[in-house]
């Protein structure tokens, strides 16, 4: 490509830009964090790739991020020597909505329409970080060169629907983003002021693991021999002078490696936001040093809100792996099972080989050991939580825990004890399976449950009449994923889980005499309903209603059939 070409933003990007600019206006400074976070991600990627292709990076592997402001030109520039982007990557990553997918974005957009607008938390989940530049800039220029590429690419846009792409000469690998700043309105911060930038970096990006450097004006003492003095040796002129100097703005401290008491709540909040790309505060912090045969540091956060795309397979996992404070990889699926992928955090394992690949990780004994311990740690934190707090967590992440039951065989029982359900007797309260068992009637042998779409219809289901008559409690399961739970949890603490909706409930056997009495009626009904039902039987299940539909003992529940139909199976 030689010519400069103009392209259109996708429609959803235009909508998104509009939303960002308007809804985040009161939170302007976050663009700095977003751009720094992208630069830091880009350096992570470069370092990862450098391990297998060192030659590509040999010319420039003193990794850092540089900020610069120009008061005259009214620009803010951020440069990194990270992975850069090829032409196609620029086109794919900038100008569309990164990662999360258009569909999900539009969904959330639709949902938020009735509310006050797209909330910052929500925007944070879409990977729209780069576009935050347009909150403060009326033109953004991105120059970038990927390793091994001869030429660089320039992307430029005023955020109004179009962007241009052209090939450029670029001396170094990496990315340079220039923001042509809007004139600040009354009360706005001036982002060409060095001290303002310095404060913002300190506040939001202090723990970024690469130096964030800015050439700043500072005053330094004039060396003794250069000071002009009078005959008594007293200085006549200034003893300090103003100079420009490179300064590293962030402390780069690895907070996971500090001892627990040395990390403040605010540091956790900022760090959590940094690694999770979330905007809200963490719900629970798990910070621990494991000591034993091998030692490693663990810092995990349980988020406050379930991400909208929790179950999307393309969703990144929240764990990052470090070795002696050197980043190895993010999205480290080997550190936690799939269903705990919402947990955000860091593991720093000094005994790990720095050159591990994902393939090796899966087989690594140490990693498997760490994984086991992390899961245990999360469980014991959840088990130790006060009821009210746990329910708050459960309402967001209960589905994730349930997803563990069919998949995490080793921890099935422990996961099951973390389940909570409302029941025919509990009203608004949740009960545990243990509480259920404790409350079982003397003659009751099994744990009864019923699945369906909503509590109201379940409570009044005629299928429950017989059980209610016996004063048995029934678990009300209204989550589609409960179907998988019940299928993979045939029993809990030696009590069978039994669907109130399937087969003969076995409460009292219907005697043969009664069966004979009704045989002609039954065969008549069977004939009439041949194409619709499998069988018509006499049952003790009902007390007030005349008839009801049930499933075979081994058949799918009605709700499950519905779910499968809806998902096209
Ligand atoms: P996210 O960081 O959540 O992916 P962003 O909108 O912040 O979303 O960035 C979009 C994408 O643009 C990134 O995923 C990355 O591929 C690319 N990108 C942004 N900034 C840089 C950079 N400094 N160097 C390399 N790639 C970048
Ligand atoms: Mg980003």
TrEMBL record:
Claim: Nucleotide-binding is one of the keywords in the record: yes
CDD domains per record: HATPase_Hsp90-like (cd16927)
Transmembrane regions: none
Broad class of where this protein is predominantly found: cytoplasm
Top-level lineage group: Bacteria
Chain ranges of the Histidine kinase/HSP90-like ATPase domain: 27-185
Keywords from the named record: ATP-binding, Chaperone, Cytoplasm, Nucleotide-binding, Stress response
InterPro entries recorded: HATPase_C_sf, HATPase_dom, HSP90_C, Hsp90_fam, Hsp90_N, Ribosomal_Su5_D2-typ_SF
Entry's localization field: Cytoplasm
Family recorded in the similarity comment: Belongs to the heat shock protein 90 family.
Chain's role: Molecular chaperone. Has ATPase activity.
The protein, known as: Chaperone protein HtpG
Originating organism: Desulfobacter latus
Lineage, highest ranks first: Bacteria, Pseudomonadati, Thermodesulfobacteriota, Desulfobacteria, Desulfobacterales
């Amino acid at each position: 490509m030689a010519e400069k070409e103009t392209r259109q933003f996708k429609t959803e990007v235009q909508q998104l830009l509009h939303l960002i600019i308007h809804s985040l206006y009161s939170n302007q400074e976050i663009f700095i964090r977003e751009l720094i976070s992208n630069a830091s991600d880009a350096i992570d990627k470069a370092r990862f790739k450098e391990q297998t292709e060192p030659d590509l990076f040999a010319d420039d592997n003193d990794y850092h991020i540089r900020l610069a402001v120009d008061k005259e030109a009214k620009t803010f520039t951020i440069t990194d020597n990270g992975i850069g982007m090829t032409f196609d990557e620029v086109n794919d990553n900038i100008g569309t909505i990164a990662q999360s997918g258009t569909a999900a974005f539009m969904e959330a957009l639709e949902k938020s329409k009735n509310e006050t607008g797209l909330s910052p938390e929500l925007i944070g989940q879409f990977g729209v970080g780069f576009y935050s530049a347009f909150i403060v800039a009326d033109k953004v220029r991105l120059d970038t060169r990927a390793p091994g590429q001869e030429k660089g690419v320039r992307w430029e846009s005023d955020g109004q629907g179009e962007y241009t792409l052209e090939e450029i000469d670029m001396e170094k690998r990496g990315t340079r983003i220039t923001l042509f700043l809007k004139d600040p309105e009354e009360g706005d911060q001036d982002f060409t002021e060095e001290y303002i930038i310095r404060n913002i970096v300190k506040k939001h990006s202090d723990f970024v693991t690469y130096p964030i450097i800015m050439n700043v004006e500072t005053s330094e003492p004039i060396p003794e021999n250069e000071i002009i003095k009078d005959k008594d040796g007293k200085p006549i002129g200034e003893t300090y002078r103003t100079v420009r100097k490179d300064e590293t703005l962030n402390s780069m401290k690895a907070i996971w490696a500090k001892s627990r008491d040395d990390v403040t709540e605010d540091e956790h909040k900022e760090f959590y936001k940094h690694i999770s790309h979330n905007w809200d505060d963490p719900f629970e912090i798990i910070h621990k040093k494991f000591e034993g045969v091998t030692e490693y540091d663990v810092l995990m956060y349980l988020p406050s809100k379930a991400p909208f795309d929790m179950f999307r397979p393309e969703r990144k996992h929240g764990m990052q792996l470090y070795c002696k404070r050197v980043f190895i990889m993010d999205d480290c699926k080997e550190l936690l099972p799939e269903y705990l992928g919402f947990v955000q955090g860091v593991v720093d394992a000094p005994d790990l080989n720095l050159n591990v690949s994902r393939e090796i990780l899966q087989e690594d004994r140490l990693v498997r050991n760490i994984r086991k311990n992390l899961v245990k740690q999360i469980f014991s934190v959840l088990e130790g939580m006060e009821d009210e707090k746990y329910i708050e967590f459960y309402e967001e992440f209960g589905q994730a825990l349930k997803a563990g039951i069919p998949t995490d065989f080793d921890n099935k029982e422990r996961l099951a004890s973390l389940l909570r359900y409302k029941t025919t007797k509990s009203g608004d309260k949740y009960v545990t399976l243990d509480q259920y068992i404790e409350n079982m009637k003397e003659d009751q042998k099994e744990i009864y449950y019923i699945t369906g779409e909503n509590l109201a219809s379940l409570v009044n289901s005629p299928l429950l009449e017989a059980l209610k008559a016996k004063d048995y409690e029934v678990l009300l399961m209204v989550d589609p994923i409960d179907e998988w739970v019940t299928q993979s949890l045939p029993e809990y603490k030696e009590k069978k889980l039994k669907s109130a909706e399937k087969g003969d409930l076995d409460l009292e056997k219907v005697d043969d005499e009664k069966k004979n009495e009704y045989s002609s009626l039954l065969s008549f009904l069977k004939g009439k309903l041949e194409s619709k039902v499998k069988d018509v039987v006499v049952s003790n299940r009902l007390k007030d209603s005349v008839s009801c539909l049930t499933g075979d003992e081994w058949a799918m529940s009605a709700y499950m059939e519905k779910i499968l139909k809806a998902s096209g199976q």
